[in-house]
Amino acid sequence: MSFNKYHKKVKENDTVILYLGYDNMHAIKIKRGSVFQTKYGALRHSDVIGTTYGNRVQCPKGYLYILYPTPELWTSNLPHRTQILYSTDISVVSYQLDLKPGSVVVESGTGSASLSHSIIRSILPNGHLYTFEFHKERAQKAEEELKDHGLSDYVTVTHKDVCKFGFDLEDVADAVFLDLPVPWDALPSAKKALKKLGGRICSFSPCIEQVQKTCACLAELGFEEISTMECLVRNYDVRTINLPNPEFSKENSKSLPQQKSTKSEQEDMDSDSPSESAEKSLQCGKSGGKKITICNSKDKGQTAEVLDTPEWDYIGKKTAANFSFKSGVSFGKMPGHTGYLTFATLYPL
Ligand SMILES: C[S@@+](CC[C@H](N)C(=O)[O-])C[C@H]1O[C@@H](n2cnc3c(N)ncnc32)[C@H](O)[C@@H]1O
Q1: In the chain, how many domains are there?
Q2: In a shared domain, residues 226 and 240
Q3: Cβ(114) to ligand 1 under 6 A?
Q4: What percent of the chain has pLDDT over 90?
């Protein structure tokens, strides 16, 4: 099995992702004779061997897909030994640390090696990751896992307390990433590990007090361009919106986008999912610009002109009472704080 090289068909000992839905996935290692229980019933591993990745496999009560693992899928399904970094933060870290093929990266702590998998994918084929973890079993497990995933040539896992003993690396790294409770203790050694030509550093901390101390220490050590960011995903829910019935005439159409929402729209926004009746009312109307073809039974085939409106598309239905269509609605609150990402640059001395 290798996260590095792709092969088409599932083999014994492959780690595969079973996809039953975007919020129902499992990473399993294929072993002939083993059985995995899913909500669709038992999956026999031997039924998966020889299947082409991406194909679906039948279980007694439904089917699931067999996916080849990527760092993103691994991050969503790995066994948690610690808190981990998720793909949203990982994408910003990879970009801000300027990771590319050939980069040399120093990381601590390794934790569950969620970030490590993505770092390695970015720096392949000739870069290297030095990752440090002071919890012995976690360091061992990460090493085993990375070996099992065919990545051991690109990573060195070291069991060490980097805050007490440092990285013991000098002038080698293009980038350093710290996910530690007291990152400032590791910063002097991190600076030493960075190439004399300079490099980038990132420290991930859940609390703003940790960020304050880290920033102060970075500045003292001569790092520049210190900046902290938080990266949150903004979700949109697809809802059915009901508006009062618009008149598709020249005068009325001007005010169409400003129409006030009705009670039924509010009810729909407050409900968990679009109402069944609203679902049923969906039909095939579509506007690519100023002309709209109405598809409900009464006015079917008619073309209405919409003047002075911005380009807007809808899939909706005009009924005697109202006009309903699908729209993306954002949430008022944005949960999902994981941590603050503090980045800084070390310029050549
Ligand atoms: C939150 S986890 C890291 C998760 C990792 N970024 C991931 O994506 O899977 C933090 C790890 O740092 C380790 N750690 C804490 N202090 C350390 C130190 N002084 N030296 C090395 N590792 C340390 C902990 O044991 C823990 O496993």
Answers
A1: 3
A2: no
A3: yes
A4: 67
Give the CA distances from residue 248 to residues 241, 284, 291, 298, in Å, rounded to whole numbers and listed in that order. Answer: 18, 17, 10, 14
Residues whose CB falls within 8 Å of the CB of residue 98, separated by 6 or more in sequence, listed in order: 174, 175, 200
What 3-state DSSP class applies to 287? Answer: strand
Q: Are residues 170 and 247 in the same domain?
A: no
Give residue-wise pLDDT tens across range 214-231. 999 999 999 999 999 999
- Determine the residue of 89, 110, 114, 178 to mutate for testing ligand 1's pocket, defined as the one with the most ligand atoms within 8 A of the Cβ atom: 110
Mean pLDDT of the 56-85 span:
95
Query: Could you tell which of 80, 82, 130, 341 is best to mutate to test the pocket of ligand 1, judged by most ligand atoms within 8 Å of the CB?
Result: 82
- Name residues whose C-beta falls within 8 Å of residue 59's C-beta, 6 or more positions apart in sequence: 38, 40, 41, 42, 43
The verdict on 219 and 243 lying in the same domain is no
Tens of pLDDT, residue by residue over 19-31, are 999 889 999 999 9
Is residue 86 exposed (0-12), middle (13-18) or buried (19+ Cβ within 10 Å)? middle
Statement to judge: residues 228 and 186 lie in one domain: yes
